[in-house]
Amino acid sequence: MTFSFEANRPGLTLGIVGAGIMGRGIAQIAAEAGITVLLADARAAAVEEAQAFCADIINKKAAKGKISESEASAAIARIQATDAGPDKGYAAFAGCDVVIEAAAERLDIKHAVLRGVEAAVSDRCIIATNTSSLSVTSFAAAARIPARVAGFHFFNPVPLMKIVEVIGGVLTEAEVIESLVQLAQRLGHYPVRTTDTPGFLVNHAGRAFGTEALRIVQEGIASFADIDRVMVEAAGFRMGPFELFDLTGLDVSHTVIESIYRQYYEEPRYRPIQITAQRYAAGLFGRKTGRGFYEYLDGKAQKPAEAAVPQVDVAAVPVWVSDRHPQAGAAVRAALAIAGARLEQGAQPSAQALIIVTPFGEDATTAALADNLDAARTVAIDCLFDLERRRTLMKTPLTQPEFVQAAHALFAASGKPVTVIEDSPGFIAQRIIAAIVNIGAEIAQQKIASPADINKAVELGLGYPLGPLALGDKHGAARILAILEAMQSFYGDPRYRPSPWLKRRALLGISLMTAC
Ligand code: NAD
């Protein structure tokens, strides 16, 4: 039996069940790509609403001159309403080449749709589900012909998120995947082939950013706003983890965090933090409820002000910088020289000196003790990213306030913003970046997707400045490994155990993109 279609064939017909947010987005891009779309929904009015919604967007494109009037009206005419659905069956879908199910996220509902569709379509029609969190194999289990069933996971908003995961269930035929890959290309989307695993690729790769940030808050290291500032201004992310939680909505994010953790049988790398459960219970979902990690006034997040830069005569403070990490030490010295600091040159700090250490993965306490330095005068600075951006400082429990203030003033003297946090193995950025790289490496290790697709999918689907493996290569696999090992050793928590993919490539000194 052949389960395939010629994706570029004129007259290709796509059935969509569920004309909600996702169904209408898929309908719009398919119609614009010249594909005939048959729409069905359990609620008849939903189909008309979806048609009107798509027509409005397509007409606006024509008004802006992005497409011609005739192209617009032809695309609109290609989105056809049907009376198919749970009550009347799916006879209207008899001639479909492919059907995408985008109904509610419940396996019983999806199984009923699958059975209804399969009773109507030809044996060669491909059936795909847009599920975000259910197993494609479980979905396909209700099919008469599971070999023709796959996942085709779009992201919201479909026309703007130019990526779709093409997911093979355990029984899916390879030709089904190839046809869907070609269909994605016709729709102008980047197809990422993934295996049927919890969260597939993008939602799996997204586990580190939010949960590690929550872990930092839970441990009292830094505030939501401080973490967001560091991840945006120092690490170059478009949005901080808490801004992202507020945008997505905690009703969605908290559910995904718990679901992926459970589906991976409580894998510590994905362990949730109780903060989201609490805030979920309180209804603090984010922008949609007017309050999440931030409060929203007229749609704008109200961010707490930062601590003022202490007034310190920076030229009066002798500063000694550790050379344990020579490159980082040199960068810190250069930054301090610009700020007019009194730099000490000795092998050991003088009795009055402010002591600066530049640990990777260690906290300030461990870094001070490792070199027999006075913890009461020690301040650590994060050198994972260059010091031209926001700078993160951290103190030991013993660091005296006057030394913290002096360090703050010195590193802010050239006009750079400074964040001061409590002691933390890996500051903020190091631990979040290391966690992102580690989970990306584990996705590669489990052969969920190819290294190139892991990077591309994360850039397109999560909007990170770089995909996880490219991020690891940028900082060096050995450095990321060292950060993770230091965190694992400090906390004794298997959450931070390095993925074998990362460890081997770090030991061999090769790129994280190197496939087996
Ligand atoms: P939605 O609630 O906007 O739309 C679902 C539509 O399905 C509704 O119009 C509803 O009337 C219809 N429906 C419900 N039961 C039906 C049935 N038995 N037969 C036919 N139609 C039925 O939901 P959505 O956000 O479009 O999500 C649809 C699917 O896409 C879900 O599986 C969801 O997990 C997945 N998804 C959602 C997003 C997202 O960000 N919203 C992203 C990716 C995937």
Automatic annotation (TrEMBL):
The keyword Hydrolase does not apply. Pfam families: 3HCDH (PF00725), 3HCDH_N (PF02737). One of its GO terms (molecular function) is NAD+ binding. The keyword Oxidoreductase applies. It comes from the Bacteria. Residues 14-196 form the 3-hydroxyacyl-CoA dehydrogenase NAD binding domain. This is 3-hydroxyacyl-CoA dehydrogenase. It comes from Paucimonas lemoignei.
